[in-house]
Amino acid sequence: MDLEEHIRQIRLGIEARQFANEAAVSQGIVLRLLGALSWPCWDTHVVAPQYSLEGRRADFALCHPPDQPIALVEVKQLGMSSPSSERQLFEYAFHAGVPLVVLTDGQQWHFFLPAEQGDYGERRVYKLDLLERELSECSTRLVRYLKYDAIVSGAAIEAAREDYRNVARTRLMKAAIPKAWRKLVEEKDEILIDLIADQAASLCGYKPDYNAIVRFLEENISFTQSTSHTKPHPARPPVSEPTPVSSPGPEPEYIGKYRDMLKSPDSLPSRMKKYIDEVGSLSWADLKKACVQRLGCKTETSGSIGASLRVLELEGHVRTTGRAEGKKILSARISR
């Protein structure tokens, strides 16, 4: 019988409420799966039951070499696998140098690396639910973290550490995104404001001025977490009429910086102008691709692409028609 068939039968048993207590979960689920993962469950020096650890007992210690635990398995009654109640076990595992802790009620399997950083939830590498996940996913994860040969070789622990790093990286990026957005809004990022102005102009034919966009951000963007270092808001001038696209309006500071860059033939605005002159015309989407593939930009979302194009337009080197990704960009050499 292969591992997936064991899991399938265990699922049926869980749904039929066949595992009434911790002992039933230990014998009917945990030991069954460890056996299917090639652990010699009859050898109590390798799969050690009720392993004593500094006055505390873990339900099972998986050992390699014999009698030296490399993973602890704590078993709970179905529905009782809360990691918050196992703080002492995690601390003992950390001090004893046991790299992997598994907490399970038979249905849910929590895999932890006690020595990594963060609270107990952040040290969890993966949560596997035998009823919610596909059979193939259940099998793959159990083999990845608990297969006997993989534990013995160290591959399982390294795989868990790799997954932990990926989870931690994703968590950091997720936390950084709202902070980046807050910073752009609170500091009135010039490129952000100009992008909003250009998009508004493409929709209605009028370009809102700088202060109108600042007022919109102040009145419509709110954050749930307050900061003590927020910069003071600029004084609000009287409301002005919308600025037609053809009118220059208040010029953001970055326009002057990119205009000065045109003096250097190696700058992005200069190289962009040369490329547009060579091809004659192209779409906004194609220009962004060319900036990445030919002009040295790292991503198509780089603000320097839009800023460079805006300066070329203001200086009369290019002309644009249309909107969004289909916007057409024409060299002044052929649009005259």
Structure description:
This protein has 336 residues and is an alpha+beta fold. The chain is built from 13 helices and 11 strands. The protein has a 6-stranded mixed β-sheet with strand order 1-2-3-4-5-6. Strands 9-11-10 form a 3-stranded antiparallel β-sheet. The chain has a two-stranded antiparallel ribbon with strand order 7-8. A hairpin with a 6-residue loop joins β10 and β11. The longest helix is centred in the middle third of the chain and has 32 residues. The protein is elongated. The protein starts with a helix and ends with a helix. 26% of the residues are buried.
Q: What labels would you give this structure?
A:
336 residues, alpha+beta, 11 strands
Give a short overview.
This protein is α+β, with helices and mostly antiparallel strands.
Write the layout of secondary structure elements.
Elements: H1 3-15, H2 22-36, E1 47-53, E2 56-63, E3 69-75, H3 87-96, E4 100-104, E5 108-112, E6 124-129, H4 135-146, H5 148-153, H6 155-186, H7 190-204, E7 206-207, H8 210-220, E8 243-244, H9 253-261, H10 268-279, E9 281-283, H11 284-293, H12 303-314, E10 318-321, E11 328-331, H13 332-335
Parallel strand pairs: 3-4
Antiparallel strand pairs: 1-2, 2-3, 4-5, 5-6, 7-8, 9-11, 10-11
Helix pairs in contact: 1-2, 1-4, 4-6, 7-12, 9-12, 10-12
